Amino acid sequence: MAGSGSAHLRPRDEVLLRVEDLVVEFPAGRGRTVRAVSGVSFDLARGETLGIVGESGCGKSSAARALVQLPPPRSGSVRLDGLELTALRGESLRRTRRRLQMIFQDPISSLNPRRRVREIVGEGPRVWNLPGDRVDEVLEAVGLDPATAAERRPHEFSGGQCQRISIARALILDPEVVICDEPVSALDVSVQAQILGLLEDLKARYRLTLVFIAHDLAVVKNVSDRILVMYLGKVCELAPSEALISRPAHPYTRALIASIPGGGLDLPPADQLITGEPPSPVDPPTGCRFRTRCPRAAARCAAEEPLIRQIGEDHWLACHYPAPPPSPTGTSTPTFTTTAPSITTSTPSITTVPASPPQPPRITTTTAIDVQATIDVTANATPGNATPGQRHSRPTPLPATPKPPTPHFHRHVHEGRRWRWR
Amino acid sequence: MRRRLGLGFWLAASWIGLVLLAALLADLLPFPRYDETLAGPPQSGPSAAHPLGTDGLGRDVLSRVVYGARVSLGVGIGAVLLGLGIGAPLGILAGYRRKAADAVIMAVNDVAQAFPALVFALAVVAFAGASLRNVLIVLGVLGVPSWVRLIRGATLTFAEREFVLAARVLGTRDRRILWREIVPNVAVPAASYAFIGMAVVVVAEGSLAFLGLSVQAPQPTWGGLINEGRTLMETAPHVVLAPSVVMFLTVLSFNLVGDRLRAMTDVRESGLEPVRPAAAPALPAAPHPVHDVLLQVEELRTHFTTPRGLVKAVDGVSFTLERGKTLAIVGESGSGKSMLIRSILGLLPGTSVRGGHVYLSGDDLTAYGPAEMRSVLGLRLGTVFQDPMTALNPVRTIGAQVTEPLRVHLRMGRREARAEAVRLLASVGIPDPARMLRRYPHQLSGGMRQRVTIAMALSCRPDVLFADEPTTALDVTIQDQVLRLLHRLREERDMAVVLVSHDLSVVARWADEVIVMYAGKVVERGPAREVFARPRMPYTEALLQAAPRLTDPVHHRLRVIPGRPPDLVDLPPGCPFRARCPYARDRCATEPPPLFEDGPQHHQYACWFPRDPAPAEPGSTNDTAHTRADTGSTSDTTPTRPRPESTSGGAGPETVTGDAASGVESRGR
Ligand SMILES: Nc1ncnc2c1ncn2[C@@H]1O[C@H](COP(=O)(O)OP(=O)(O)O)[C@@H](O)[C@H]1O
Ligand code: SF4
Ligand code: SF4
Ligand SMILES: [Mg+2]
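A: This is the predicted complex of the input protein with adenosine-5'-diphosphate.
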């Protein structure tokens, strides 16, 4: 993880939100500093969901709050549609707030106990002098009955319903990006499924771009197009969700997957992949920050911080000695289509033809109607060889890993392409 | 919705109201003015004309007490409002702005608070002259530092809540955040302290008046009246008693009202406070055989009497557990998992009644008294809870806490206990255990603390270890370590483990047996592999499909269980899952399903129309996943669900069963 660098960022005109070299630090008393986020970069295309996973304290929430400049990051750049948020102050910053909204983990503490639901949800329009008549509409959209819910106070609702109210409060402003910071971590399994389904529906209905933060990899995979794995304030690995789960390359990603019972991969037991506890972010290890717990760590890992490099189609990694891809096991083998998914878009999209894992992936370019060209980019995809220039051989910002061609996927891609913004 | 304030509050509030009203309307009341001498015979006791008698100059005592209330209450209320008026803005500023404003305000405040208050008051009043205005100002200003501190503290707690962050994300301006989000929340604790503050000021004014440093005669004040009456104590005690009693009642009332308001301040409390063990009276139990097993729980019931009605938190739970096995209890929050553990351990609050029996190697624990139970709890039953901090004393070292059970229960000497503690900590994977003994809980990470509580639970070599959500608060990689540790220790020590968890994947991996609870009842029970591969009860099935799995495709629609668990207060007759069950039919509404059992595996389920025990079909995962994707609904208010009429349940649910089964194959590894 100890990865830095921004090789994985896509061209500026393709992304809605671009975060570069984000650094968030807090004073820790006695002149020391908590290094919460140290040089993290990522970006989001319109309509995309980026999942961020990592253990508690790895800087997920600090990064999320730095995106909305509460508080602003120590350094780094946050660009929303080309607008540099970190350069804004006071009123001009406030004017951008409508476009970026947030949902929090604790459903109880994120609602003012002394206000009624109608006031809580209607606060946004009131602040922005917009007509407040959409309260009922958004309450209905999040699955609450305005007639019974609007006049009540938060403590009369269950955790899941409070989370729906929080979502309604964020949605009413028609934001472009919604940052969800552990939105389902405090909820029971069945309620969690309700909220995850709701977020997916609302994303389509209100054409949202989501940052979805959680510590549970299975939850993140369920909603995310791409997943960013963080460890102690650094980026470890970034890949389309399916690729990250089926071909994890970073030792920490592998440990995370192995720690989840039923991960579906033939990984060694987690206790062989990770040892000990995370070090303090006040005094992070030199070189690769994961090295104190990494079974593959060598001298170079202490001396030199690994830079983010490409190891596959849109698959990015920060590690000197990545593990060979694991083999999937049993009945839960993810099946990959060998034919190109019939995606009806005007821009070409890319599909990795599944090969037996150790071989480098081949990349095929297809278009809406038929396959136009097949470019062999095997050399580019070889670990260590990627250079920034080769980024542009990827013609689409959308996740283009092989996925089973589900109806859901179709809808997602269609809408992602067609959305036009105010 | 509101908490009850209680009779005391209303009596106190009425008294304050009465005194206030009398003070305000004193001029209209039908008694002589306070300074009218010889309104009656001097020093006469209570009579119809003078209900509280007269003083040495024949003035009406009631009149003087009522007029005195004007000064006492006036100063009380005025000084508090003055202090609040100055202190509240400063406190809010310091608490909300933090940084430099906070540093400056609090530095000045600390200096001000260090001032000897009464000396200051005496000096100022002596210098500026004893008048109502001066007394009020002095007492008001003296209260400012406390107000700043209080309001700042309250502001801080709310300013860090996520709803304030959410308001800033909405783009709300600071002034509006202060007025809309913070002030209403700070107002409640402020109001409660205002009443307590008034009590303090009334006493302070009384003291000044007693020393002659308040309003000057002839205008009466309560302190002054007491002072004057002092000389007549022997002959006319009522002259001193009347103002004393009125002042005492008033101060008491202010304090009482303030206290009740403060108790109300917490809009909702965590409900996590540890229950005091109490001898719960018994509910009758049916006769039953006692088996030759380590732990046998027989028809265990725990009911609470609440203002809303009877809550059956645990309703007829039975199971047996043998050495070397792990029994998992799963269910959503409120399903009664924790209550079941507490009922077994006899750690129930006094408002509960318990029925049924718990046999540990054949001994009925429900027949044990508190002292016997304590020794069983320390020696034969170990416990680990979700939050290790509730089990650890924050002000004692780890060493003191780990050695305590060794010394109390096993009667080890100091040195022996230390050596054993080091061994124990090493066995739970704590690096450098000797150094760890000298540390305090707050110096440890969550995972390390949980290891310490496990070491403590294991110190006396228990037969059964109860772990209630032991890893829920921990990170996944640490969770895996702790669960592995529990498993290893179970093997090494040949004990049994009861593992409570809401996480089905954890249960599937680490448990031998599983009990699924819903609304206080066991709804499914059997070998873990069997239950997860072939759930028979629709709730178990739904729970399995609602949990996201790594092997599911991206954007996979999870099964949504519509609605919420039922309110335990008025549980409908019939099956408790009926309102959320896609397979419910008429019979489910009227007759509660008993636990059926089938197969050689003793797989039990409480359902009239169970799912087919379809064998797992290898390789079917991805296709069936999409079939099931459309059966859920996203909203718990507008459920749409299939209601198959045929007994077989239709094609959809069957494929669902196959899918869940094959998915679990891999996780059960
Ligand atoms: N002291 C109490 N008084 C009344 N009801 C209680 C008390 N403690 C728990 N309950 C009720 O018992 C039920 C089961 O609670 P619990 O055992 O904590 O569930 P779980 O462990 O599954 O979260 C809940 O409905 C809860 O409201
Ligand atoms: S192999 Fe080295 S660089 Fe890679 S994660 Fe381990 S310690 Fe870090
Ligand atoms: S008894 Fe009826 S309502 Fe209850 S789970 Fe079975 S089918 Fe559903
Ligand atoms: Mg519980």
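The longest strand of chain B covers residues 309-321. Chain B touches chain A through 82 residues (CB under 8 Å).
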